[in-house]
Design goal:
387 residues; mainly beta; 2 domains; 10-stranded mixed beta sheet; 9-stranded mixed beta sheet; 5 helices; 19 strands
């Protein structure tokens, strides 16, 4: 075994074992699986275009500001802010009757959900072994839409934090859940369990400085007639690596993904999505826009798998990418794996530069070249805003 796995296993052996026996057993199973695997490397599909070495790289914090958000500005109000820190979590207000939030380590055994990890997802498997905080959020039936912000704030900026969140939405709920990283290095696993006829708007809003790093695994389990809109903004960071896995576990459900990836300087961003059409009559739409400049790099991948019998599935993948410098790199790959006959599917990917004719047109109307570029970039980003 090489360095990363050894390091994870050593950290696990130093953990406090004051946990329920069933949870210790889950960790031990993950520990044994981790021992049998190798460090993430460029031979793996999910890490082929990622700088694996940055997982161990400690970058001195500087004074660099964060990139500017590509999403519409505004002072949005939330029903509740869940602030997760080095010592646990705190709430901005008392939970109403329809909401239960507790530490993930206090989760009952029958509510624990096992997630499937393998060599490709070894970094996420390490989370199962090492997570020491996170929350379980249960939203029961309520008449009004719900908005919750999960804000990560860590004092030790150079220490990797391992979190697991499990979010359960009851039938008929309309909820918006936003994730933000305030500071630090984060490895987080999120599980969203979306009941029948439930609507979830999930915002993954990660704007990082060049010293910050983030790895996330996000699983969405959709039951019948559920609707999930996942809007992601991944800007900056020494390393961002995101995997979204979607499981249709019923019929007539819909998953919509919009993602804006912007890299600068020497940033490294990976944005992966897997959609599993296990049942018929489900719809998935993926619209991602990526922009790379300087010497940065982005890997943008979308894959849909349609199982035998999952007829009447509808799939659309639209990945477009812009390079703003000769040294920047973008790798983009839509994929379809279809084992059913009656399926409507379309996918496409483009990589290019800003259109020179459009730039010339804007300049001919008296707009300066830099402002013209900003207008075109903003217009390009807006295509991926799905909420």
């Amino acid at each position: 075994m090489a360095g990363l796995i050894n390091n994870w296993l050593e950290q696990a052996e130093q953990q406090n074992s004051a946990e329920p026996a069933w949870l210790q057993n889950k960790r031990q199973q993950a520990f044994s699986q981790l021992e049998s695997l190798q460090d993430p490397n460029r031979k793996l599909e999910f890490w082929r275009y990622a700088d694996v070495g940055r997982l161990t790289q400690v970058i001195d914090a500087g004074t660099e500001s964060r990139p500017e958000s590509a999403l519409p500005s505004g002072n949005e109000e939330h029903d509740l802010v869940v602030r997760i820190t080095d010592s646990g979590f705190e709430l901005s207000a008392q939970c109403p009757d329809w909401l239960v939030i507790k530490n993930i380590n206090e989760l009952d055994e029958e509510l624990w959900a096992d997630l499937s990890f393998d060599q490709e997802t070894v970094v996420n498997l390490a989370n199962v072994v090492l997570f020491d905080t996170g929350v379980c959020i249960e939203i029961s039936k309520t008449a009004k839409p719900v908005s919750i912000l999960i804000d990560y704030q860590f004092a030790e900026s150079n220490k990797w934090q391992y979190l697991r969140n499990q979010i359960q939405l009851a039938e008929g709920v309309h909820a918006k859940i936003t994730e933000r990283l305030h500071s630090g290095r984060l490895n987080v696993v999120n599980l969203f369990q979306v009941a029948n006829q439930t609507e979830l708007l999930r915002m993954q809003d990660f704007i990082l400085s060049s010293t910050e790093q983030l790895v996330s695994f996000n699983q969405f389990d959709l039951n019948s007639e559920a609707s999930v809109t996942n809007m992601s903004q991944h800007l900056g960071g020494a390393l961002q690596h995101h995997l979204h896995r979607v499981n249709f576990n019923g019929q007539q459900a819909k998953y919509t993904s919009g993602s804006i990836n912007k890299s600068y300087n020497n940033n490294n961003i990976v944005d992966l999505i897997e959609v599993n059409h296990h049942h018929k009559n489900n719809q998935s739409e993926v619209t991602h826009r990526s922009i790379a400049k300087d010497k940065s790099q982005i890997f943008n991948n979308a894959k849909a798998m349609v199982a035998p019998g999952a007829d009447q599935s509808e799939i659309e993948q639209d990945l477009k990418n812009i390079l703003l410098s000769e040294d920047a790199k973008i790798f983009s790959k839509p994929e379809l794996e279809v084992y059913a006959d009656e399926v409507v599917a379309a996918h496409g990917s483009t990589i290019g530069a800003l259109d020179e004719q459009s730039l010339f047109y804007l300049q001919s109307r008296g707009i300066a070249i830099e402002q013209a570029r900003e207008i075109m970039i903003e217009s390009f980003e807006q295509e991926a805003i799905v909420c």
